[in-house]
């Protein structure tokens, strides 16, 4: 169940996954067009050509649209959080002070993929 | 391609573009598919008579010369049916040169819807449609040609005419010059 929600709710994937998605979709769709021509011509029916193509596109949707786990294998590596140094002109107290309300998370690694929409 | 909707949008538009390319390629390659139809047309007789144009019993309507052809057709068009053929429109035309210029009249047609109907064997058929010159008489018309043409109508693509056989003949006169019999 958790796998399903992670695949469909927003369905974000990392950059390597997006590259893989693009290549897979191109390969699958052009391949199903070629297969459609072969099937339709051999069976001497134009309608079979388009049914095959639609089936190929449906297969592509199943492979590409949900955020499968193998698209999320290379998550983005963010730089470590910079610690505040006394004497700098920054205002570190605003970030790490114990009086800061902790319910509002703003740092990227504290927020999960599916909460990013909020 | 970050989230579900972006992937859905991008993949769907690519699939539609590929579908368009597929359709264009099918329609462009259809005229080059091989076919070897056999065809033979034989003209037995041409008779010309006069008749009234609007109503045979209305004496005020004009009289005109009508030609009636008797012909045979032997053709096997089943090899013209490829995966992209919807039907074959076969028709016979008579074309001639007159004082008005070039004339072409369709005198017979048939829609062939499948391979079973593609073997034409017509014996002593007459023209379905009246053959009458635009100027009401065949005066000034020298030679005419009887042509069998097949027009394969595709599911995807452009229709074109494919001329099969052409026979020259002459149309006899029923009215002498001056409009008198």
Topology:
The complex is a heterodimer of chains A (118) and B (181).
Chain A: H1 2-8, H2 15-42, H3 46-64, H4 93-96
Helix pairs in contact in A: 2-3
Chain B: H1 4-29, E1 38-52, E2 63-76, E3 85-98, E4 101-112, E5 119-126, E6 131-132, E7 144-154, E8 162-169
Antiparallel strand pairs in B: 1-2, 2-5, 2-6, 3-4, 3-7, 7-8
Can you walk me through this structure?
- Chain B: This is Signal peptidase complex subunit.
- The complex is a heterodimer of chains A (118) and B (181).
- Chain A has 118 residues and is mainly α.
- Chain A has 4 helices and no strands.
- Chain A is elongated.
- Chain B is mostly beta strands and 181 residues long.
- Helices cover 14% and strands 46% of the residues of chain B.
- Chain B contains 1 helix and 8 strands; from the N terminus they run αββββββββ.
- In chain B, a hairpin with a 2-residue loop joins strand 3 and strand 4.
- The longest helix of chain B is centred in the N-terminal third of the chain and has 26 residues, at 4-29.
- At the A-B interface, helix 2 and helix 3 of A face helix 1 of B.
Enumerate the spans of chain B where pLDDT stays under 50 for 5 or more consecutive residues: none
DSSP helix fraction of chain A = 40-55%
- SSE string of chain B, helices as H and strands as E: HEEEEEEEE
What best-fitting shape of chain B do the alpha-carbon axes yield? elongated
pLDDT averaged residue by residue of chain A = 79
Count of alpha and pi helical runs of chain B: 1
> Strand share of the residues of chain A?
under 5%
Helix and strand composition category of chain B? mainly beta
Jot down its keywords.
heterodimer; A: about 120 residues; mainly alpha; 4 helices; about 0% strand; B: about 180 residues; mainly beta; 4-stranded antiparallel beta sheet; 1 helix; about 15% helix; Signal peptidase complex subunit (chain B)
């Amino acid at each position: 169940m958790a796998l399903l929600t992670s695949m469909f709710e927003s369905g974000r994937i990392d950059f390597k996954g997006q590259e893989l998605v693009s290549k897979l979709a191109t390969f699958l769709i052009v391949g199903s067009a070629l297969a459609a021509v072969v099937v339709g011509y051999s069976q001497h029916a134009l309608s079979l050509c388009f049914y095959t193509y639609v089936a190929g596109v449906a297969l592509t949707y199943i492979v590409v649209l949900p955020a499968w786990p193998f698209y999320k294998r290379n998550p983005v590596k963010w730089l470590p959080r910079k610690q505040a140094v006394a004497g700098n002109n920054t205002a570190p107290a605003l970030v790490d002070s114990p009086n800061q309300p902790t319910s509002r998370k703003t740092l990227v690694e504290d927020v999960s993929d599916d909460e990013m929409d909020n | 391609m970050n989230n579900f909707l972006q992937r859905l949008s991008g993949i769907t538009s690519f699939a539609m573009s590929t579908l368009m390319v597929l359709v264009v390629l099918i329609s462009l390659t259809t005229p080059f598919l091989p076919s070897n139809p056999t065809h033979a047309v034989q003209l037995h007789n041409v008779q010309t008579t006069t008749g009234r144009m609007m109503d045979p019993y209305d004496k005020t309507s004009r009289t005109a010369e009508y030609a009636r052809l008797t012909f045979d057709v032997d053709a096997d068009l089943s090899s013209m049916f490829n995966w992209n053929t919807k039907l074959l429109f076969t028709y016979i035309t008579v074309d001639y040169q007159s004082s008005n210029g070039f004339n072409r009249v369709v005198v017979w047609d048939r829609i062939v819807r499948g391979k079973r109907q593609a073997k034409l064997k017509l014996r002593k058929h007459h023209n379905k449609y009246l053959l009458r010159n635009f100027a009401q008489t065949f005066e000034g018309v020298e030679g005419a040609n009887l042509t069998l043409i097949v027009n394969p109508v595709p599911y995807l693509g452009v229709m074109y005419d494919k001329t099969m056989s052409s026979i020259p003949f002459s149309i006899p006169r029923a009215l002498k010059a001056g409009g008198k019999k």
